[in-house]
Design a protein that fits this description.
Elements: H1 2-6, H2 9-13, E1 16-19, H3 39-43, H4 48-51, E2 63-64, E3 67-68, H5 77-85, E4 100-103, H6 109-112, H7 121-128, H8 138-141, H9 148-158, H10 165-171, H11 189-195, H12 197-207, H13 216-222, H14 230-257, H15 263-284, H16 292-301
Antiparallel strand pairs: 1-4, 2-3
Helix pairs in contact: 9-14, 11-12, 12-14, 12-15, 14-15
The structure holds zinc ion (ZN).
């Protein structure tokens, strides 16, 4: 175990900062004491000889009569660069203090020169694995009141990580390419959600409205601006995610269990699931006027803009 830990020294090294006291233990070349990291990594070991400062010199040994032991006349670019980043030699040593090392993960430069040297595992983890930039569809997936398994599936879809047949065929060409929902086009993420006629009409039947663009990412961007009514917006989000989740489940059932359901059954399940969620939410959130369920029943009583030719089909291929 210790050997494994020792192998991580090069990572740990980047988080250590030396605060100079007497300067008799901090290595001029190997330790990070300027904020630029170990100077040897900047200059290169083979070039340290040019400066005249020995490879094992401490800070105090690199200073003589208040000046760095580096030629001021040299025009070598590396030496000029080194001179430009070194702090003034006459004020860096503090003979009454010992040199000390601080753990800098999670601290900015202004703080790690003065903050207490405390180790934080969470800040270290974040420094090693920084958060990726926020994506514009973040709130359309992780909204308050979501159904976790639906949101997770939508997140996987948004990341384009669904194992759709186009991806599987890259390493297993014998796998059929055809979409098992409509049997009329190759299965891709964008086809399944929502270019496929089966999923296209199922989504419109569930939402009772036609989004301006029927591809997955366009709908994610449309959802936050779909309506000014916050209750209706929440319902649209839930319906959309339930539709995507059940479509993916239906696709898997057709491939792996050889069972299929008409889209009318999927629509019923979407409505039942979202209604149950709204019932639970309406008990846990402050009362609204109109209530969530009133908005829900109003939406359900409105007629869809499009007649879904597959919703009430008895043909099991749809
Ligand atoms: Zn299809």
């Amino acid at each position: 175990m210790w050997r494994r830990l020792l192998k991580l020294r090069h990572i740990a090294r980047s988080f250590l900062f030396c605060r100079i006291g007497m300067g008799n233990t901090c290595s001029f070349w190997q330790d990070n004491w300027t904020g630029w990291g170990p100077l040897i990594l900047l200059i290169g070991q083979q070039h340290t000889r040019l400066t005249g400062i020995p490879i094992n010199a401490t800070i105090s040994q690199a200073i003589q009569h208040g000046h760095w032991l580096i030629s001021t006349r040299s025009r070598n670019q590396l030496i000029s660069f080194l001179r430009s980043i070194l702090p003034p030699a006459d004020s860096i040593l503090h003979p009454s203090n010992m040199d000390s090392f601080a753990w800098t993960a999670g601290l900015d430069e202004a703080n790690f020169r003065i903050a207490p040297a405390r180790f934080s595992s969470s800040k270290t983890f974040t420094a090693l694995h920084p958060h990726p930039p926020k994506v514009p569809w973040h709130k359309s997936i992780w909204f308050s009141g979501r159904i976790p398994k639906h949101a997770f599936t939508c997140w996987v879809i948004a990341r384009d990580r669904l194992p759709t047949r186009d991806k599987i065929r890259r390493f297993s060409p014998q796998v059929p390419s055809i979409c098992v929902l409509c049997h009329s086009a190759p299965e891709t993420r964008d086809h399944l959600l929502f270019s496929c006629l089966y999923s296209h009409f199922l989504l419109i039947s569930a939402l009772h409205v036609i989004p301006p663009d029927l591809d997955f990412h366009s709908i994610l961007q449309w959802l936050p601006i779909s309506t000014a009514d916050s209750s209706l917006k929440l319902i649209y989000h839930l319906l959309f995610q339930a539709t995507a989740y059940l479509l993916w489940r239906e696709r898997n059932a057709r491939i792996h269990s050889m069972t299929s359901r008409p889209s009318s059954q999927l629509l019923k399940e979407i409505i039942t699931t979202v209604k149950a969620k709204l019932l639970a939410l309406s008990r846990s959130i402050p009362p609204r006027d109109p209530s969530l369920l009133q908005v829900w029943f109003r939406l359900q009583s409105s007629s869809s803009h499009v007649i879904n030719p597959f919703t009430f089909t008895t043909n099991h291929s749809f």
